[in-house]
Structures are given as structure tokens and as C-alpha cells.
Description:
Elements: H1 2-23, E1 33-35, E2 41-43, E3 81-85, E4 92-96, H2 97-108, H3 115-135, H4 138-143, E5 149-150, H5 162-169, H6 171-186, E6 191-195, E7 198-199, E8 204-205, H7 215-219, E9 244-250, H8 251-260, E10 275-280, E11 286-291, E12 294-297, H9 298-305, E13 312-317, E14 320-326, E15 334-335, H10 336-344, H11 349-356, E16 361-364
Parallel strand pairs: 3-5, 8-15
Antiparallel strand pairs: 1-2, 3-4, 6-7, 6-16, 9-14, 10-11, 11-12, 13-14
Helix pairs in contact: 2-3, 2-6, 3-6, 3-10, 3-11, 5-6
Amino acid sequence: MKYLGILFVFLLAFTVFIVFTVIAEGDIDGILTGLTENDEEINVFKNYLVKENEFDDIEIPEIVEYSKTPEEEIYEETQIFVSVLSAKTNEVSTAELEEYLCGVVFSEMPPSFELEALKAQAVAARSFCVYKMLYSNDDARKEHRGADICDDYRHCKDYISYEEACEKYGEDYINPLWEKIRDAVYSTRDEIITYESEPAIAVFHAISGKETESAENVWGNPVPYLVAVPTEEENNKSEIKNYVTESIFESNEFKNTLVSNGFRANFAKDADLWISDISLNSSGRVDCVDICGKDITGRKLREIFALRSTNFTLEYKNQAFIFTVTGYGHGVGMSQYGANLMALDGRNYAEILMWYYTGVKIDYAGKFLP
């Protein structure tokens, strides 16, 4: 019985790790766009006047310590409520923002991460939520049945309540983890990041690689605080599970997968002639691939072949096409594993946020919401 108990705990911990590894991706176009009933995109980015190439030669600002002023302490008493659409029940409920964020952070980042990384995640999630509360248009709210946000990670942010977590994993296992998350959330109570005195949409992803990605490369929107910055994952890849992965498809499987997803081309008899050019964008991720004389984007290939990111190489070898993929996620905004590495290096959450979101400041949601 003793060994069965140890085995059960191990399997439970492994299951939780796998769940967090999957949902920490935060990488679906719906994060930034919704769809109307007519499948028209709803853009939730604010419009910025960005000069051409203004951010090509970005310099990382000096990281400085952040501390609250006495005047800002008053916002810690602000109580904000958020309405949330449940993807499971299609019902809308209202929750106090900080309690809601405990369930978001628990779902979106492994609780085993350093406390400062969890704090950075809490502020990023709070910023994202406040942004959606302020700037979602009527069509976006219609999709949410009038709610501010939903709990579908493919569109907004994943969420689990304390009660659901206990039921799923067991109260004894959840309690210490939940207390750590609450510490991260409540020690940053009401804090958000802003750009030009307005809440920022703080998107994130799991693993970057050598550097993060710009929003413009992924979604076509130039956003001043969502530009590429260097990260430390490449120098610590041995410490990151599945930092590099391979996806292998024999030639007919490769062809049939493309065709079944609407890609039409004249495939030569020799499969080694199918790939003629792979172009990369400014961050080194795949922008476009020429397959049999027709272009297909790296993003589309990632979607079709369920790749972990667009940071991949593609080669034909031993009668098969091999994707070698680095990182996990769209690459925009904060890298979760990068944030944890910074925390392990002694950086605090404000330093982490100011590194990954260029030119932002820490402010308070209570200034923007009634």
C-alpha cells in the first residue's frame, strides 16, 4: 500500500505537469481577435501610430526596481468585479477580480515556478483582463454573451475555481499550491501594466527560444510594447522539458495532410523536390515556405501539423519530412519559462514585466475602472 500511495502521488503530479504544459501555451488567434457569427474578425488591439521600422533597432531599457508610492497604496483597497462566460456551461457569472485571477494564474502557469515569475503572470493576466473589460467592442461582448471575458484558453484565459481544482486533484495536494498562487496575486493586487497611460494587452507564451516575437509578425498589428526582445531560454535549454521537439511525416502523409487542409499544388513525383524555399521573419521564425511552387505561411503549417511554434526547420530525409521545432507558443509578449529563469536569477516581477513588455509602466486598475 505504501508504494501504491507513492505511485499515486507521482502520477497525480505528472498529470498536473502535463496539463499546465498544455494550457500554458496561451497561443490562439482568438486571444487577440474574436469571430462574429459571419466569421468576421473582431480586432481588440488599440490602434497605435507606429512609424515604419521604428522598432527595428530596439534597445532594451535599463531595468530598475519598482516600489509603490504612498498615494498608490489606496488602490489596493479597490474591489473590482469581472463577468466571466463559462465555455462549459455557456453561462455568465460574476467574480471578484483578484479571486478570479487566482484561478487564472493556477491554470496558466505551473505553480512550481518561482514566486516572482508567478507575480509577473498575475500582473500580465490582470492587465489582459482589464484591457478586455475596457476595450472589447459590442460584437466581442456579444460573443461573450455580454461578459467581459471567457474561460476558454483558446480565446481569453483558462480558469479553474478552487473548488474545481480540489475536486480534480485533491484538497491536500491543491492547498499549498493555491496558497502560493494567492500570495502572487494578492501581493500584486490591482497592479497592471500600461503603455502611454492606458492598460496594455499583456499576451504571453510558454517558451521563446533566443528571442520573443513581435505582434506585427504574428497578427499584422504593430504594437510598440509587443516587440522582439532577447531571452535566456537558449542558454538554459537543458533545463526546459521539450525545448526542442520533432514532428515526422512520411511523404504521403505530409502531402495528404496539406491537401486535406485545403492546400492545392502540383506535387512532383520526387518528394525531395517539394520544398524549394523557406523564408524567415525578423525574429528567425518561419514566415513562408514554398511547397511545389506555392507559398504557405509558417503559421498555417504550424496549425496544420500541430507544431509547437513557428520557430522550426523543415527537411526531407529518409523518405520523410522532419519539422525540428524550438519553443512553444506564438512567441509574443512574456515568455513564461523565460520569466522563471529571470526569477531564478534574482529578478523581481516588475523587472520581468518591463523586460518583456517594452516601454510599459506599472499602474493600477482602479484608475481605469469604476
